[in-house]
Amino acid sequence: MERRHYLGEFEETVLLVVAMQHEAAYGLSITKVIEEDLGRSVNMSSVHTALYRLEEKGYVMSDLGGASEKRGGRRKRIFVITAAGKSALLEAKSHRQYLWSRIPGIVFKGGTS
User: Fold this and answer.
1) pLDDT tens digits for 16-66?
2) CATH 1.10.10.10: does it fit domain 9-106?
3) DSSP state of 40
């Protein structure tokens, strides 16, 4: 049986940002994109929780980056999307596009109700 990829809405958002930031994604950079670009209030601990859940599912992998003086010698944990993560995103995109294509045109005509 074909493996199905299930992503929650927030997991999908985090995974999209990891892919967008190709090999430069870490907790704070992801949080900033979600807050500044998407206008969504989020705390870094929820981003880290999602990242670790995605890592457990095999959708991202992480490694420690180099230490920097700016961070007091601490290293960042850098996240990158895996092949399974790419498959999960493509499947989610396909499902959304299918559902959007099935909405009758009348639904979005003439205002809200």
Assistant:
1) 999 999 999 999 999 999 999 999 999 999 999 999 999 999 999 999 987
2) yes
3) -
Domain locations in the chain as residue ranges: 9-106
Question: How many CB atoms within 10 Å of residue 4?
Answer: 8
Instruction: Report yes or no: 60 and 26 within 8 Å, Cβ to Cβ.
Output: no
CA dihedral 41, 44, 47, 49 (to 10 degrees): -130
The string of pLDDT tens digits covering residues 53-85 is 999 999 999 999 876 777 667 788 999 999 999
Q: Which amino acid is at 55?
A: E
Read off the amino acid at residue 20: M
Distance of CA 52 to the CA centre of its chain: 12
Q: What is the 3-state secondary structure (H, E, C) of 47-100?
A: HHHHHHHHHHHCCEEEEEEEECHHHCCCEEEEEEECHHHHHHHHHHHHHHHHHH
User: Considering just the CA atoms, what is the radius of gyration of the chain in Å?
Assistant: 17
